[in-house]
Amino acid sequence: MLSSFVRVLRRDAFVLLWYVGLALVAMQSVLPQPRELILGDLGDNIHYVYMVGWSAQAFLLDASPFIDPRLNYPDGLPLSSNDWPYLSYLLLAPATLVLGPVFGYNLAIFFSHLLSGYFTYLWAHRLTGSRLAALFAGTAFMLTPFRLLRSLGHANIVTTQMLPIFFWALDHCLNTRAKRERSLWFLGIATALLASSSQYLLIMSLVCGALYALYAILPDVRFLLLHGWRIAASVLLGTLVGALPSLSVLGANTFTPFAVGRTRIWSADPLNFLLPSSLHPLWGDWVERLRPEPYAGEKTLYVSLVALLLAGIGFWRLMREAQGRRRAFVWGATALSALVFALGTDLWINNEPLQRNDPFWLPAYYLAHLPGLGMMRVWSRFGIITILFVAMFAAFGLRYLLARERNLWRQRILATLVFGLLLLDLMPGPLPASALGPRSIDHWLAAQEGDFAVAFLPVDKPLINDLAIFGSLFHAKQLPAYMHAAHQPRAYQDFAAMALNFPDQRSVDYFAWRKFTYLILDTNEYNGWRAPAWAEVEQRLAEFPELRRVAEVEAFVVLAFEQ
């Protein structure tokens, strides 16, 4: 094992250094303080930092990393009620314990960048035999703006490193056309690893993978009948193993299917694949003025015009080769299928449906009615599979252009020019970053002895929940909490329903019955938006003498019940 690892390092040292450098550039905003800064504004990213922290702490507490018994009081909180890359978080637990949850979270994103590029490189190199062409494919996939924008908040979606491995394994299984057990095991393991990275990416890959297999096998019905079931069984087994944490919470009725009204707005526009990111440091402002995109984080699916041009050349060359024609068809049809799914439930242009009241439903609308797929909210994410195959086609295109040049220096000049254009086209620029650390109220709670329950108020404000669960890593007290606002567990739903109108008699009685030691009120959030103004709250608190003010920590007022 060690000797194989050393051989890989020697063989691909330059390639790995290249992707390490690109990953660091993509994360340049957090490099000055990797233990305090995270990419993006504070929001969903806090959930993933907490997950990283709990995955590490669970080892010290001899607890399951999949359920935090301190949260979702009085029950436990299953982390699988949100999509999380649990395998990578568990593998990085030692670094997290030493350097903190923010560092562990940043390290996980770094490796997602690095491995997304490297694994795409390995597949492209296996097929093309050209290191430069494969390096180009990995770079185009790694730096695609969709991936980088998802690193601002959705760590599950940025874990695309297993996408090329899954389709590589599937492709190998389909093209051996023989009963080779090793290829089936490879596919099963790849599927399990994908499932351990993201349920979203798993579902998209299973859908597109099924189409990939049909495109590759048909019309060879004999192979489908004799061996198709073996491939399907391998994928199913890998799915069950990798998705087991998520499957274990299905019976709790935590996951809520999304109605079409909530998914339609996430339909991609065909132009999203052709317009550069508005965060591009050179022409991003111009793109934003030309066509404002309020949902840029999810709908920026730019494939790179440089990669697209080379992909066109690669598709043309494969179509001219007897052995490549079938691959060109399968890849092209799969990329096009993923693009159609990314267009969502119905066609939208400039974030407006072409037919608002009587839409022509696209395949995603019917797909959403299948069991389990109603939890898909953002259909545009299918576009990452299209981007992957554009990058793979581009590898064949660059290989062809380099092979035409017999002169070594001309080859180098051409390669330098093409890579320079790609890097200019996909230049990430500095992404926004935010500081995240324990608050004064978290330190105050940590100083209070004992194991007890607290409630942060008001409810119905996501950031209150997000910062509360992150703070629990430092004070270890019990509190109501959820992992995903759309998939709240029953215990939190009960808590929110009772606490929504606090302070009133019903909520105060509930808190006393549940034996909350402290009620912690964020005065900044009592601002008249989805919660009364603080002056009104103070006036109403005077009606409940059993609640006494025991501390004020910055903007937080701490209440306790009179003994």
Explain how this protein is built.
With 563 residues, the protein is of the alpha+beta class. Helix content is 57%, strand content 7%. The chain folds into 2 domains: 2-245 and 258-425, no CATH class; 440-561, D-Maltodextrin-Binding Protein, domain 2 (3-Layer(aba) Sandwich). The chain is built from 27 helices and 10 strands. The strands form 4 sheets. It has a 4-stranded mixed beta sheet. The chain has a two-stranded antiparallel sheet with strand order 1-6. A two-stranded antiparallel ribbon has the order 2-3. Strand 2 (67-68) and strand 3 form a beta hairpin. It is elongated. Residues 50-421 form the DUF6311 domain. This is DUF6311 domain-containing protein.
From the structure above, extract its key features.
D-Maltodextrin-Binding Protein, domain 2, 2 domains, 4-stranded mixed sheet
Give a brief description.
By secondary structure, the protein is an alpha+beta fold.
The secondary-structure class comes to: alpha+beta
Unreliable spans: none
In helices, the fraction of residues equals: 55-70%
Report on the biggest sheet: 4 strands, mixed
Q: Give the beta-strand count.
A: 10
The largest beta-sheet arranges its strands as 7-8-10-9
What is the rounded Rg? 26 Å
Total of helices: 27
- Could you say how many structural domains there are in total? 2
Q: In what range is the share of β-strand residues?
A: 5-15%
- Based on Cα principal axes, name the global outline: elongated
Q: Could you give the distance between the termini?
A: 62 Å
